[in-house]
Amino acid sequence: MSSVVPTRTTDPSKVHPSPPLTPPSTLKNIKMTKEEEPADMNIPDNYVAWTLKNQKPLPPVSWNNWWKELNYLSLSILTITPSIALWGAFHVKLRWETAIWSVFYYFVTGLGITAGYHRLWAHRSYNASKTLKYMLATAGAGAVEGSIKWWSRGHRAHHRYTDTELDPYNAHMGFWWSHIGWMIVKPRRKPGVADVSDLSRDEVVRWQHRWYLHLIIGMGFLLPMAVAGLGWGDWAGGFFFAGAARLCFVHHSTFCVNSLAHWLGETPFDDKHTPRDHVITALVTVGEGYHNFHHQFPMDYRNAIKWYQYDPTKWFIWTMSQFGLASHLKVFPDNEVRKGQLAMQLKRLRETQEGLSFAPEGNELPVISWESFREQSAKRSLVVIGGFIHDVSAFMDEHPGGRHLVAKMVGKDATTAFFGGVYDHSNAAHNWLSMMRVGALHGGTQHGLDDKSVPPSQRLRIARYNEIGSGNASSTAWSDSEGLLG
């Protein structure tokens, strides 16, 4: 159920609601029930901080109180079901017809969660006909993961408060907590408020909520058992394999969206929070494994955006739209998706860039006159190229063209020879040469060589917004300091 943090009452005459979708005259005649009122209408702006400050968490679980802190209903479902399946695996022969039916029904009930509970009701990523809604609500009940309303309320809280203490399956609490612990142990805090008033107005959601107990028994066990029993006489196999074992797999498949999808993989769209993309997670969750994308663009009906990525839920929804059972499939603008990808690509490049050493900026070097350069060249192998003075002492014996080509340029300007006069040097040569800079020649770069003063590795740099426009131009300061020679 939703939990609402008490706030001071507000005079209705002073509230500024969003523009109504129906005429004001009609709204006067509408009286919303308590369930239909948005749960987050009157929460404070600093709701998260306010809640953490004012809502006392339950005491930590310890050896002295752990049995009091268990949710025995969830614990029973999550332990008895696999125990039944395990007993059946040792005592009931698995027929090939039952095996195929079990896998098929796994996908049916799995899609009830992924295409129904998740993408249709929790995120409203598409519209479904009443027929498809009833199909998904019924199939989702067969997964025995709570009603649509209960499931969606928790999932919306997860998205709104991801990785915080108000996230019901907070990944920072550990892999096993987000996978199954949050259901077995009473939460230390109530999940953050999330509005499900739209679901309270949905007749299919209300129908499923009202008949939920009957549906989970019928869809969870009776139907899979009846199909196998009436179809090929395998009543026991239908119960143990298509019923209990299949249910166990569906449970942990869905749970992996809360655990594995926040632990394994890459963050190609944003690394602010824990959700990640990985094909393994996609394979075990009926396509919900591209979770980094999903958390960035939750209203998108897709989880995978590339044709080769595994997302059967996406293809199911698309197929339903072709038959007229689904419509208004929401797709986040490609331009905005690519912005997210670009931001992360630039961030990774920035990290690589910061791990490398680059040539000093011109304003970081002492400015040396020609006369001083000539005088110091007699003590050390210095060469001028592109307006910068380079100490090539350690490189002369390594030069691919031979020591003599460098030695004859000591104390001289070798710009023409370096930039193609003798040899058109590679980008690597330009980058390496720039690391030998020890000074800037007074008077600046020769006319027409301004662009060549910047080595190739520094012509495209990743800069933070506060670095753009900062003074990185060559200094005009004058210095003939002998410190050039160390």
From TrEMBL:
Q: Which stretches of sequence are listed as region Disordered?
A: 1-27
Domain annotation Cytochrome b5 heme-binding: ranges: 383-442
State the Gene3D superfamilies in the record: Cytochrome b5-like heme/steroid binding domain
Per its record, the protein catalyses:
octadecanoyl-CoA + 2 Fe(II)-[cytochrome b5] + O2 + 2 H(+) = (9Z)-octadecenoyl-CoA + 2 Fe(III)-[cytochrome b5] + 2 H2O
Q: What does the record give as cofactor?
A: Fe(2+)
Q: Report keywords, A-Z.
A: Electron transport, Fatty acid biosynthesis, Fatty acid metabolism, Heme, Iron, Lipid biosynthesis, Lipid metabolism, Membrane, Metal-binding, Oxidoreductase, Transmembrane, Transmembrane helix, Transport
Highest taxon of source: Eukaryota
Localization in the cell: Membrane
Q: How does it sit in the membrane?
A: Multi-pass membrane protein
The cofactor note reads: Expected to bind 2 Fe(2+) ions per subunit.
Q: Name one GO biological process term.
A: unsaturated fatty acid biosynthetic process
Which portions of the chain have biased composition (kind: Polar residues)?
A: 1-12
User: What does this gene product do?
Assistant: Stearoyl-CoA desaturase that utilizes O(2) and electrons from reduced cytochrome b5 to introduce the first double bond into saturated fatty acyl-CoA substrates.
Per the record, the similarity remark reads: Belongs to the fatty acid desaturase type 1 family.
The name this protein goes by in its record: Acyl-CoA desaturase
Q: What organism does this protein naturally occur in? A: Fibroporia radiculosa
